[in-house]
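Human:
Class, as today's exercise, you are to examine the entry below, and be ready to discuss the fold:
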Amino acid sequence: MKSMKSLIKRDAREAQGAWISLALTLLVYQIGLSQFQNRFSMPEGLLLTAPREVEVLLSDAQEAIDRKQWAEVSIALGQLLGIEENAADANPGEDYFLSPAARTKDGAKTVLGQAKAMLENLPEEAKQAVELRYGVKAKQMLDQAVASDDLGLLYQLSSRYGFTDAGRGDPSEKSARAA
């Protein structure tokens, strides 16, 4: 009888230990899952929206386009894209989600997406002004990448200056042509 009672007590302790282990495992899993969800799958309303200064700069770029002031357009878009050398922004080229008020129905949802769409839709005269401002820097970057056979620099060129003559096209093709 004693051995039966001690056996039951031992089984009860083992079952209790198993339940505690299961509860701890579920708790750790839930904490890990919630951290992943917080970082990577937040609802849209909680995402980081553009600071007011960035939205004002985007608005200024659109106003300059409307006024056909191409030099101002190229500077404003360059600041948004992080390629303007004397940009005052501490994080040049950083992307943000546009506030719902700043979004267009069919347009981009991010600042960089909107800036790139604006660049693509510029008239030819404006694209020439942008090329004059950033084309030389892009060409220098292309020459440096080809001379040093740096494919990473070619990809950076395409990413940052893809709207210029030097930045257009496939970086690996540029590398192959230079070789």
About this structure: Residues 69 and 100 are 27 Å apart (CA to CA).
